[in-house]
Specification:
The complex is a heterodimer. Chain A contains 7 helices and no strands. Chain A is mainly α. Chain A has a domain of 99 residues. Chain A is globular. In chain A, 54% of the residues are buried. By secondary structure, chain B is mainly α. Chain B has a domain of 111 residues. Chain B is built from 7 helices and no strands. In chain B, helix 1 packs across helix 2, helix 1 packs across helix 4 and helix 6 runs antiparallel to helix 7. The chains are: A mainly alpha, B mainly alpha.
Chain lengths: 175, 197
């Protein structure tokens, strides 16, 4: 495509932002497809590491695009990727806010939202699948994933503790 | 101040600097979902909105594509302080995490090859994948209350298209979304999902 990686970063993430129903968590496989398989910006491990670092940072999960951008083109890449991923949807949000009262109770609005819920559910499930397959290279890592599912489903423990536990188990070298 | 029962919020509208500070605090408090923090800050502490108003603005941000909380900050900021308010809330929300994540990115560029770091990060990813599976489970529960509906089929097709066939997200979306919306229009599913209290 274009030789300038900043242009490619902008085009891909701006496009992605408009299809990411369910937020950044729904777009992980697409980010992987673009950054690893198509553009060869990073390898598999670097992508998965970026995801882990984004999870460790406070704030919205969307900041994984900042890390991908930084990896590709430093501070400029981080800025461009973030603006591309947030800009278009922020503009849409700004303008829709002003006319929301006019159609918030419209049947078509409710149908659109009800229709998109299962789509985003399927997309987030796809993200979980892609990540689990990348992370669970052996039985111990798969057990960590399974235990996390159980703890996160049945308790309200702060996810940070789960990350710390996962990181410490990783440190032992079993995973 | 005494306890107002169900009365509208008594607080004055936020100023720009209050907006910035509020969203900055929300952004650094929330690991894996800052929504409960945003609700606590806006409804309970600052009383800028009632629960109903909050839910309405949040419904709007869920309706739109892209990160929910980012959309929410824009909708909330613009409601009180216009375009400048939207920008200030957005910068408050994204600014601190961006600085932190860029610093972490720099450290990773320097030390990413270290084997011990790789081990720690793969442990974190294993946990994060589990967390995401749990999110999927929680989302799926109100949607599939024991019965198979078209919604189940749409979710499965989206999963198969993106995860197994590895098709590009825009293609999968452009095919499935219109079908799903049409089905929602003609065959509404009783989701049993009540408005958030």
């Amino acid at each position: 495509m274009n030789e300038n990686p900043l242009v490619a970063l902008f085009i891909y993430f701006a496009t992605l932002s408009l299809f990411a129903v369910g937020g950044a968590n729904a777009a992980i496989p697409e980010m992987h497809r673009i950054a690893v398989e198509m553009m060869h910006w990073m390898n598999d491990r670097q992508f998965v590491d970026s995801f882990a670092i984004a999870q460790l940072s406070p704030g919205p999960n969307v900041i994984i695009v900042t890390l991908i951008g930084y990896h590709v083109a430093g501070i400029a890449g981080a800025s461009v990727a973030t603006v591309a991923m947030c800009g278009p949807t922020c503009l849409v949000a700004y303008f829709v806010t002003r006319i929301w009262d006019r159609f918030k109770d419209a049947p078509w609005r409710i149908a659109i939202q009800a229709g998109l819920v299962p789509v985003s559910l399927g997309l987030i499930a796809a993200s979980a699948f892609v990540l689990a397959r990348a992370a669970d290279k052996n039985i111990y890592a798969a057990i960590v994933t399974a235990l996390t599912v159980i703890v996160a489903t049945f308790t309200r423990l702060n996810p940070l503790w789960l990350f710390i536990a996962g990181g410490l188990l990783g440190l032992t070298g079993w995973l | 101040m005494s306890e107002p029962a169900a009365s509208p919020p008594a607080a004055a509208n936020p100023t720009l600097s209050e907006l910035f500070r509020a969203f900055m605090i929300v952004s650094v408090s929330g690991f894996g979902g800052a929504l409960p923090w945003a609700r606590r800050m806006i409804v309970e502490q600052k009383r800028w909105m009632t629960t109903e108003e909050f839910n309405e603005v949040f419904a709007l941000s869920q309706f739109l594509p892209g990160p929910n909380l980012v959309n929410f900050s824009v909708a909330f900021g613009s409601r009180f302080c216009g375009p400048l308010g939207a920008l200030v809330a957005l910068i408050g929300l994204l600014g601190p995490p961006l600085v932190i994540v860029v610093i972490l990115g720099m450290l990773y560029a320097r030390f990413g090859e270290l084997e011990v770091l790789g081990r720690i990060l793969s442990g974190i990813t294993a946990a994060a994948a589990g967390l995401l599976i749990a999110v999927v489970g929680k989302m799926a529960m109100p949607l599939f209350t024991g019965r198979w509906t078209w919604a189940t089929g749409i979710a499965v097709l989206a999963f198969v298209g993106v995860a197994l066939l590895r098709w590009p997200l825009p293609y999968v979306f452009l095919v499935l979304a219109p079908i799903a919306v049409a089905l929602a229009w003609f065959m509404p599913v009783k989701t049993g999902k009540a408005a958030k209290p």
